[in-house]
Amino acid sequence: MEALDIPLARFVLLYLLLLLPLYLLRRLKLGLGREVLISVVRMSVQLFLVGIYLKYIFAINSLLLNLLWIMVIMVVANLNILKKAGLAVRKLFWPSLAGVVCGTLIVLGVFLFLVVRPTPLYDARYLIPLAGMLLGNCMNGNILSLERFYSGLRKNEATFLSYLLMGATLKEAVHPFMREAIRTSLAPTIATMMTIGIVSLPGMMTGQILGGSFPLVAIKYQIMIMIGIFASLVLSMVTSLYLSLPFAFDRMLMLRSEIFAGKKKG
User: Fold this and answer.
1) Straight-line distance from the first to the last Cα atom of the chain, in angstroms, rounded to the nearest whole number
2) Are 150 and 251 in a shared domain?
3) Interacting residues of 112 by C-beta distance below 8 A, sequence separation 6+
4) Range of 196's domain?
5) 203-262: pLDDT as tens digits
6) Percentages helix, strand, coil for the chain, rounded to the nearest 5?
7) Is residue 41 situated within a structural domain?
8) Do residue 78 and residue 172 come from a single domain?
9) What is the pTM (predicted TM-score) of this model?
């Protein structure tokens, strides 16, 4: 049993759902109409192109091709993290990428080698969707944590300096800011885990059920992915934040202004 296909004529009707929210945004003068339309068009084009591409990736099922795809999406995600966090790509590309790689590959390895164990282990039907879900959540979490951490340091520089003057090391001085950034970034995931199955049925589980999987099988995969998302979030955020410190502070332990997007050395 497979999910029912949606004919193109009826699929186009989905876009009519945008009319009411776009009208409300216009009445509220939020100025988001153009941005929303562009994002919807980009999403649609990107997903259709990825769908066509994945059809061939699944058919070829090559280890090299699968790994290349994951490397590409990790780099793209990392660029988006730094851009959305308002940080300079040139300064923080590598520590941020290390966090993304760490959070994604460690958890993905546990999934493939210990839990699911598909045959072959690099089976694209498992490797690519699982990596995509982990990476998407790592991206959102890292955007929040990096933005909150460095904007918090910049806004509360006097507090940070007072910690240093009292004899704290750099890691000790940034710890309160790091703790708050991570707590804020994890809040949506923890809230989702608290209410999942009662308030909402998650997308992965629903998709599997629509695709013909038994509900209990879908539930096992959903529990697996939620635990994995939480683990990958913590790993990626902590790794990115700690590895970024040597790039973000000078020898005098002062925050470099050039790590922020649009900032140049003075």
Assistant:
1) 64
2) yes
3) 118, 121, 122, 126, 127, 130
4) 63-259
5) 777 777 777 778 888 888 889 999 999 999 999 999 999 999 999 999 999 999 999 987
6) 80, 0, 20
7) yes
8) yes
9) 0.85
